[in-house]
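ZP: hey, is the PBG complex queued? I don't see it on the tracker
AM: it wasn't, my bad. submitting now with these inputs:
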Amino acid sequence: MPGRRRSASRPAPTPVLPVRLRRLRRTANLRNWVAETEVELRRLVYPIFVRPGRGGPEPIPSMPGVDRHTVRDIAPLARQLDKEGIRSVLVFGVARAKDAEGSDAWASDGLVPEAVRAIKRAAPGLVVVTDVCLCAYTSHGHCGVVRKGAVLNDASCERLGRVAVAHAHAGADVVAPSAMMDGQVARIRAALDAAGHEETAILSYSSKHASAFYGPFRDAERSTPAFGDRRSYQMDFRNAREAMREMECDAAEGADILMVKPALTSLDLLARARKRFLLPLAAYQVSGEYAMLKAAVARGVVEERAAVEETLGAIRRAGADLIITYFARDFARWSREER
Ligand code: PBG
């Protein structure tokens, strides 16, 4: 036992450790001093669901804490969000009446245009983004026009162009196409420009997976497809190179911001995209990610604030400039409590 003999005679030699990473972890002040990234409230986008009819906010059972609002409720909500420090919102609507084409999606007096006008009047400083898709407006629930059981690409893009113009006309700052049709960004850019909306930006849902994590959202939007699934247009989560191709197409077609979605299953894609593109990047922490965290919190197995800040922090670290999250208001509250 050579070790033991030595320690009995003289002290053990001090190990030479040139790197001691724990030095800068010793106190909260040191840790904050050297933290590499930060989630700022200005980067968060809060989704708003607009429903037809009258009455107050209606809870969404699968998304505790998130409500569906009527157009009349939108103005007070927008003022409230503005007061809370929220800087941008993403507006989702549903059809007043669904049809095969989803025509209510491009009605100038539809729920989204009305909500956008109400937000812009109530809180002009909020950046207003609108979701551009057909799935909440079509009777079959698919994101485009269906013929003989197939979702048509180019005909759907033409409809999406009309939707974007209706939203821009109501005052949306940014339109966010989420239908995953090829060429939708180019088509929307052309439609916006032709209608005099050169200033309206496009945030493209570029890498959007066919995902198990949209369940609660489809509940909220009543947009579950009546037949089949979305795998013939949304991306296969197994493919990262293809995700880069989606982003390259969207960038070339004139997208102003590229998005990945769901966020937590796309962190590698964010990191790759951060190296590859100079455009701002967004990530969508989707309804299923929200519901999953909420369920774990309700069971007492994780602590909400810590878990949410950790997930948002990881999304930011991976490369997101903007994060769309249903936790935006909670995050705002936590930031206020800190001060
Ligand atoms: C519309 C759309 C969806 C989401 C955003 N836009 C649903 C879908 O594609 O099925 C999902 C958002 C969420 O789950 O929070 N196409």
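AM: back. The longest strand covers residues 201-208.
ZP: great, adding it to the tracker
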